[in-house]
Each structure stands twice: as structure tokens, then as C-alpha cells.
Amino acid sequence: MTQAPPRRTVRATDTGPIVLSGLRAAWEPLAKQALVAALIVGAAAASTLLPVWLTVTDATAMWTGAGLAVVLLGLAALMARSTRLARAEIVIPLLDFVAVGLLRFGTGETRSVFLAILVLPVVWIAAGHGRWRVLVPVLGVFVTILLPLALAPGRAFPGSEVVRLVIAAVVYSAAAAVVNELSRRSLAQLTVAQRSRRVAEAEVTQAAIVQRSLQPVDGNGLPSAIRVAGTCVPARTVGGDFYDWYPTPDGGMGFTLGDVMGKGVGAGMIAAAVRAVIRSSLEEPDPALAFRWTSAGLSTGSVDMVSAQFTTCFHGRISVDGTLRWVDAGHGLTLVRRAAGGSEFLRSGHLPLGVGSGWTSVETDLQPGDSVVSVSDGVLDLFGGDLASLDRWQAFVDARDDIDGLVADVAALAERGDRADDVTIIAVTWGGSHPA
After folding, report:
1. Are residues 189 and 276 both part of a single domain?
2. Are 126 and 93 in contact (CB under 8 A)?
3. Angle at 278 between CA 274 and CA 281, to 5 degrees
4. CA dist., res. 66 & res. 178, Å (int)
5. pLDDT for position 213
């Protein structure tokens, strides 16, 4: 007997959010400068078009400031595409102080209404890491207000400008201090959150490794008359589905497929517990006892662990003479595919683990080459997820003669796109020979 190892798939950690976050960070300077440039150019245009309301005292200085803002916008675009240039990002808001100063000089200096644009580069700089970012915006305010002394040497600096300079320095330094402190606290909280996320991701990864280690690798150790294949494609890193198979003391084999309500680590923990208790009953020939032991073993008193996350499950035993003894706890997704053609579902009226009790087993005779195929309800989602999906799934099984090909085809369907639920299948053939 030759057995192909079952295909098992674990979904890799999604790195999409990390990539998108990096892209957003790279384009943020461009977005910030676009707003600054729009305000400065708009102010210059409005001053030119509305001379009755706005004053233009030096059109050259005014439009030079607007041109500088546009040039800085182009520089921000280059920084978004170059990591090396992006390191000099602070140059842009620093030169914005000059652009606002030129705009203010050209629109009436003390009468200009555009000094408030300074708040944008102040916040831009202060939002970074480091206390020095509080002092730098204050120096930028000094540059903006004192720029007329450089552009018009010898011009008297009125006392009102001194007052304006002091007030502006105090107000903008206070704003910069507040923004910087909020940024520092946010960064500290983000650091803690990222550290917690890394710990959680490591724990989830370890849980996935443990879950994979609990799944059987191949059919080694099973009777030579039995072939088996299975796969689990979880919707998340850790799934709530599980499957298992193992030889039994009477020379046959036992196999199980379970589906815990829910997904993630919580469902995976219950799945591991249910699997362990069922496997511990391998000495008992009646598979129904496994469910009774599982229900009792998971009971915690007034509130049962499995009552909040019940488990649908199929458990079967195949003896050396081909007798299948099985019990179904609210699963209903197991069928027998006959070697002679056709298939039928194995039905029962028992409730899932965590809800029902008093399970009883049923016997079904297998002929050489017959196969037992059990799946989780995530497989039905691959076939539409409606009532007709059962018929489509049955036809899919009937059209495939070999269980290895059947399992591989189901895995391929599951891997084609995102899954809302875990996809699990186990298939067992009795009395047939594996193709060479």
C-alpha cells in the first residue's frame, strides 16, 4: 500500500496592513505640503483678484512666496519616492516659514491676514519625535515676522510688530508644546501596542504550530487495506476545524472530523481538547462512547466550556472486515462513495457536542473500494453555500475516483481566494489498492 501524505495548509500572516502603513507614511509629507501650498497660492491669487478687500504691497515678494510653496510641493513629491530624500523632510516646513513670510510681506505686513497659515508648519514640525521640535517652530515664527527687516533694510520696525512677535511666539510655542506632547504620548502608546501585537502574533504562531503538529501526517501505522487522505485550510492562522486518524487495537482504524463554532485561538483550543478526549477512547470499540466521554470531560460545572462554542463532529471506526461504526454529533456532512458508483450521506438526528447527549452509534457495511468522505461546512461554501451546495458537493465527489485527487482538488478550491470559514476534509478508502 502506498499512501500520499495529506496536504495541510496554514495561512501566512497578512502583511498588507504593514505595507499600506508604510505607503501612507511615505506620502504624508506630500499631502501636508499640498495643503500649505494650496493656502499660500490661494492667498496670493485672492489678493490679486480682490484688491478692494485684500492689499498687495509687493507682488514680487507675494508670488515668490507662492512659487516657493509650489517648489516645496515638488520636493515633497520626490521625497515620497526616495527614502534618502525623505530623511530631509523637515526642510520643507522650515522653508514654509519663509514662504509665509514672503506672502505676508507682499500683502501688507502688519495688515496681512495670512499669518495664521503658520500653524500648519508649526504642527507639522512639532508632531515629530523629540523636544527640540518645540523650539524649532518658534524660531520659524521669528523668521516669518522678522523677514521684512531682511527684505527692506533700514525700514523701521514698529512697536506693534514687537508685540505681535512676542504674542505669536508664545501662542505658537504653546501650540507646538501641546502637539509635541500629544505626539510623544501617542508614540508611547503605539510602541506598547506594537509590542503587545508582536507577543500576540508569536503566541498565535505557536498555537498554529501546535495545531499542525496534532494533525496526522500520513497513513503509516494504519492497516494495509486502508488508505486515507486529509487537509485543513484554516480561514485564520489558527482554525476551529480538526481531523484525526489512528490505528485501533482490533486491527482497524478510527478517524474523526470536527468543526468548532467560531474561529481563531479560542476555537482552536476547544478543537484540540475535543480531539484529545476522542482519541483517548481508542480502546473502546463503540465510537459513541468517545462523544459521551468528551461531553463529560469538557464539562466544567454550571457553565460548560463547550456550551458557548459547540462542536459538530463525525467519528467513525472501520474494522478489518469493512464494518463502519460511526456516530454523528450534529455534523451531517459525511457520505459513503461506493466503488460500484454513486454515494449516500450518513444521516443522524443527534445534536452537537456541548448541546446534546445520549449519542448512539450506527453500523454501515463497506465493500472493497468504498470510501468515507467527511467535510466541514466550509467546504459547502466553496460550492455556493446554499441548500443546493450539498448536491453539487455530492456530484463533485462522485466524479472523482481517487481520494488523493479529491482532497487535492478541494484544497485547490480553498486556496483560490479568501475564505470566511475553515475548509477541512478527510477521506478513507477501505479494501482498495493505491494506484502505482
Report:
1. no
2. no
3. 150
4. 29
5. 61
- Cell numbers found for residue 301: 460545572
Dihedral sign, Cα of residue 43, residue 49, residue 51, residue 56:
positive
Q: How many whole angstroms separate alpha carbon 208 and alpha carbon 69?
A: 53
In a domain? residue 306: yes
| 210 part of a folded domain | no
CA-wise closest residue to 425 among 290, 292, 232: 232
Task: For the sheet with 423-430, list strands across it.
Answer: 226-233, 423-430, 371-375, 334-337, 343-345
The beta strands (E) that lie in 221-264 are given as 226-233, 241-247, 253-260
The position carrying cell 454550571 is 302
The pTM score is 0.60
Rounded to whole angstroms, how far apart are CA atoms 262 and 251?
36
Task: Please provide residue 190's backbone torsions phi and psi, each rounded to the nearest 5 degrees.
Answer: -65, -40
As given in the structure block, the three cell numbers for residue 315 are: 467519528
Q: What is the predicted pLDDT for the residue at 435?
A: 41
Q: How do 362-365 and 343-345 pair as beta strands? A: unpaired
β-pairing verdict for 371-375 and 362-365: unpaired
Q: Does residue 412 lie in a domain region?
A: yes
Cell (9 digits) for 136: 524649532
Which amino acid, one-letter code, is at 287? Answer: P
Alpha-carbon distance of 434 to 430, in angstroms, equals 11
2 assigned to some structural domain = no
Residue 365's pLDDT is what?
A: 93
Q: Looking at 234-389, which runs of residues are DSSP E strands?
A: 241-247, 253-260, 311-318, 323-329, 334-337, 343-345, 362-365, 371-375
Please give the tally of structural domains in the chain.
2
- Residue 265's domain comprises 216-430
**Cα dihedral sign, 97-103-105-111:** negative
- Asked whether residue 221 falls in the same domain as residue 196, the answer is no
**Torsion over CA: 48, 51, 54, 57 (sign):** positive
The three grid cell numbers given for residue 87, joined into one nine-digit string: 530623511
The CATH number given to whatever domain includes residue 237 is 3.60.40.10
Distance (Å, whole) CA 420 – CA 382: 10
| Average pLDDT along the chain, 436 residues, taken 10 residues at a time | 40 41 69 94 94 90 95 92 86 94 90 89 91 91 88 73 84 91 90 85 68 72 91 77 90 91 76 86 88 78 54 92 93 93 90 84 94 92 89 94 93 82 91 51
Q: Do 81 and 145 fall into the same domain?
A: yes
| 113 plus 164 within the same structural domain | yes
